Amino acid sequence: xxxxxNARGAELVEMLGALKREHSLVAExxxxxxxxxxxxKKSATDERPLVPYRATGEDLLPATRLQTLLKQxxxxxxxxxGTILIAPPLTINQAxxxxxxxxxxxxxxxx
Length: 111
What we know:
By secondary structure, the protein is of the alpha+beta class. The protein has helices spanning 2-22, 61-72, 94-109, and strands at residues 26-32, 35-40, 78-80, 83-86. It has a 4-stranded antiparallel sheet, covered by helices on one side. α1 (2-22) runs parallel beside α3 (94-109) and α2 crosses α3.
């Protein structure tokens, strides 16, 4: 399992970098092994977080919409305010990881 995590983790780093280059809403990406976070901002010109920390009510609507878009894209993950948290199974294969990250990209593109 450790070898798989190392291999997929390296691939995830590359995919996260590509995601940041492709989408202007991606403010920051970070990962360790197969645990990753993608922070989103309001727009290409507005660096504020997509959803402010500790937001309530209508301020949470972008996160709710993002969670729905991810689910529609076949990605089961958690959205916490303006951050997508990624934690796939440690046994994920390359094709599954690529498919999941394509779903993340699709969801971000629809925001």
